[in-house]
Amino acid sequence: MRALMWALSPVIASVSALQQQLPVQPQPSTPSTTSEAPPVEIYVCTGRDCLEDGSRETLRRFKALKDEHGLDVKLRARPCMGPCGRGPNIDARRAGVAVKSPGTGVTLWTDVADDRGCATILAAAGEQLVPEDYEAAPPRTFAESASKFYRGYWKQINNVLFACTIVAVDWLYQERPDIADEYSLRIAAGLVLWQLCIRAAQGRMYVRASEQPTAKRRGEN
C-alpha cells in the first residue's frame, strides 16, 4: 500500500494544483436562470486510429479524475479530428476558447498515457490558442507557423482541403493574389489549414479529416 501511495503521489499533487486552477462551481439551491458553460471542455477523438491507440482509456481517465475531484469539466467523445495516426487526439477548451497544446501551437494533445498527463491537460486549459486580433496578423505569420507544424503532412493537408466543400488551395490563390505571388502552393495549403484550425477551435466550422464520397471539388458540377 505504501508503494502504491508513493507511486500515485505525483498524480495527487498534479490534481491538487489542478483544483486550484479549475474552480468547482457550487451546486445552486434553486434552479439557475442563466446557462453558463463549464470552465473546461475536453473532447477525445474516437476515430478508428485513435480508438486503436487507446482513446477510450484516455476518456475513462479524464472521467475518473473529474468524478474523484468534483471538477466542473465537460467530457465528450468526438469523431475523427485528424490528422490521423497521432492519437489519442484531445481538444481542450476553456469558455469555448481553444487552449494550446504544449509544443505544437494547436489544440491537439497526443499520446496521453496516464493520469498525470490528463491532469496536466486539465490544469493547462485556459491558455488561449491565438490572440483575439489574429485576423489582423500578417499572412506570413500564419504561413510560417503552419509550415513548421505541418511539415511532413502535406498529403493529408491536400486531402482535407480538396475533400472540403468550404475552401481549397485554388480558392486561396483566386481570392488572395498577394499570397499566390509570395508563397508556394505547399505553404498556401498550410495557411489555409491553419485558418481552418483557428475557425474550428472557435466553433465557427468543423472539418473532418476524411474524404467524403459526395464531396465535390471547386468547379465540378
TrEMBL record:
Gene3D superfamilies: Glutaredoxin
Keyword Membrane: no
UniProt keyword list: Signal
Keyword Signal applies: yes
Signal sequence region: 1-17
Name this polypeptide is given: Cation-transporting P-type ATPase N-terminal domain-containing protein
Annotated coiled-coil segments of the chain: none
InterPro entries: Thioredoxin-like_sf
Species the sequence originates in: Pelagomonas calceolata
